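Structure ticket #2291
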Amino acid sequence: MSLTHVDHIALESKNIADSVRWYANNFKCRVEYQDNTWALLGFNNIQIALVTPGQHPPHFAVVDRNVVNLKSKKTHRDGIHYTYEKDPDMNVIEKIDRKTK
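Resolution: structure written out below.
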C-alpha cells in the first residue's frame, strides 16, 4: 500500500521577507520561491508555504492525481491544479495533482 504524500504545510505570514529570513536562519532549508505574497521553503521531508493573510487559508496539501479530472479544480500560478476541502473539524486540506517539486 502506498501512503498519501503530504506535499506542504501553508502558514500565514504578515511579512514574507521577514519570515523567510527567520526560517533560513533557524533551520536548514532552501528557499524554493519567494515574492511579496508567498514563499516556498524546502526541507528534507516536506515543504512549507508562507502566504499572506487572506491569500490562501492555512492548510496542508496532499498529492491526489485525480484532481486534474475535477470540474471544481483551480490552477495555481505555477500550473499545479488544486482543490480545497474541509475535514469534520473544518480544517482546510488542499489536494494537488502533483508534487510542487
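Closing remark: The CA atoms of residues 15 and 23 lie 12 Å apart.
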